[in-house]
Design the sequence.
């Protein structure tokens, strides 16, 4: 069965709205694991808009599945990640003014820097994944520098799905998954996936894990977090 990684960023977003302690993203991670998810995802942004440094320290101590830390190429964040030692880091692009991560990491543009960061994490025995567009040139560049896993950006597909125009975008995801698997890469996917558009992506041959956050946290408002996770697992 394809795996589910639950992103808890927006549980922290709700907490930060009041600047207090509730809801606790650490407790949210525990509930998600109890519901059966396969990994916990959190993005330590440079502006600390949701997940805080203390959160990732506590997550590292308490997560029993896998801890996937999303992060930029910023040297300060790299240093923190190397000290925390998550099971995996996912390198993503990051702009201060964006509401959420927009687009994939430009591997070709940042090739040397990504290669150096990848080597540092591999030396520390931390798995590395790149959040990239379903684009052949980007996938080839990732494989060229020794990256072992990628996460395909599904945002374009998700937006097109909402307009019932996702045929070409889905075909691209499917074809690029096949291409990446032929290169020996582990293929995950995420961004904008919800309870309507996930079913098809979960059935792409060669897809390993889907990382989903906002839609699960939104669903949890109405049905509870454990049930929201289990409903997504049922779709997978």
Sequence:
């Amino acid at each position: 069965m394809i795996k589910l990684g639950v992103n808890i960023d927006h549980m922290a977003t709700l907490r930060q709205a009041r600047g207090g302690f509730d809801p606790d993203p650490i407790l949210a991670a525990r509930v998600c694991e109890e519901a059966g998810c396969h990994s916990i995802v959190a993005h330590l942004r440079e502006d600390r808009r949701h997940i805080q440094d203390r959160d990732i320290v506590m997550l590292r101590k308490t997560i029993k599945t896998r801890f996937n830390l999303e992060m930029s190429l910023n040297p300060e964040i790299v240093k923190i990640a190397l000290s925390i030692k998550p099971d995996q880091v996912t390198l993503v692009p990051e702009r201060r003014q964006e509401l959420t991560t927009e687009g994939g990491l430009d591997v070709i543009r940042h090739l040397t820097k990504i290669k150096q960061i990848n080597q540092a994490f591999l030396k520390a025995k931390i798995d590395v994944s790149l959040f990239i567009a379903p684009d052949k040139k980007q996938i080839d560049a990732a494989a060229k520098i020794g990256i072992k896993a990628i996460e395909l950006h599904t945002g374009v597909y998700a937006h097109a799905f909402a307009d019932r125009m996702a045929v070409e975008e889905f075909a691209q995801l499917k074809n690029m998954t096949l291409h990446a698997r032929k290169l020996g890469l582990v293929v995950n996917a995420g961004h904008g996936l919800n309870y309507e558009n996930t079913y098809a992506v979960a059935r792409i041959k060669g897809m390993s894990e889907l990382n989903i956050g906002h839609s699960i946290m939104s669903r949890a408002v109405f049905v509870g977090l454990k049930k929201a996770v289990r409903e997504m697992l049922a779709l997978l």
The CA atoms of residues 27 and 52 lie 15 Å apart. Strands lie at 3-7, 39-43, 67-71, 88-91, 127-132, 149-153, 186-190, 207-212.
